[in-house]
Amino acid sequence: MNKKKKTTRLKHRKNKDRMRKHLQASLLKAKPKKVASTPRVEAQVETEVKAATQPIIKKVPAKKTAAKKTTAKKAPAKKTAAKKTTAKKAPAKKTAAKKD
Q: Measured between alpha carbons, how far is 45 from 51 in angstroms, rounded to an integer?
C-alpha cells in the first residue's frame, strides 16, 4: 500500500511540474496586456483637503408665498353594468343525408 502511495505522489508531483513549465512557456509567448495609466491618488486627496478648509456658508432660502392649493375634483365613479348571462344554445344536430 505504501508503494502505491509513493508512486502516485511522485506521478502527481511530476505532472504538476510539467504543467507549471507548460504554463510558464505559454505565458511567455502571450502578448503583454496594455496597461492603462491610473490617476494619481495624491492629487485627489489634496483637492478634498482644500474643499474641507473652505468655510461653509449656508444659504437661507427666500420665503415663498404659499400658493392656494386647489383640490382635485374626483371623477364620478362609473357604474359597471351587470354582466348578462347568455343562454347557451344546444349544439346543432346533424341530419343524415338521404340516399337516392
A: 10
Q: What is the pLDDT of residues 33-43, one digit of tens each?
A: 777 777 665 55
7 domain residue, yes or no: yes
Q: Under DSSP, is residue 74 helix (H, G, I), strand (E, B) or coil?
A: coil
Quickly tell me which residue has 510539467 as its cell. 18
For the chain, what percentages of helix, strand and coil (3-state, to nearest 5) are there?
40, 0, 60
CA distance 49 to 61: 28
From residue 2, alpha-carbon distances to 5, 11, 13, 25, 73 in Å are 5, 14, 16, 35, 92
Whether 13 is covered by a domain: the verdict is yes
pTM above 0.70, yes or no: no
Give dist(CA 53, CA 49) in Å, integer: 6
**Tally of structural domains, the chain:** 1
Domain residues for 4? 1-29
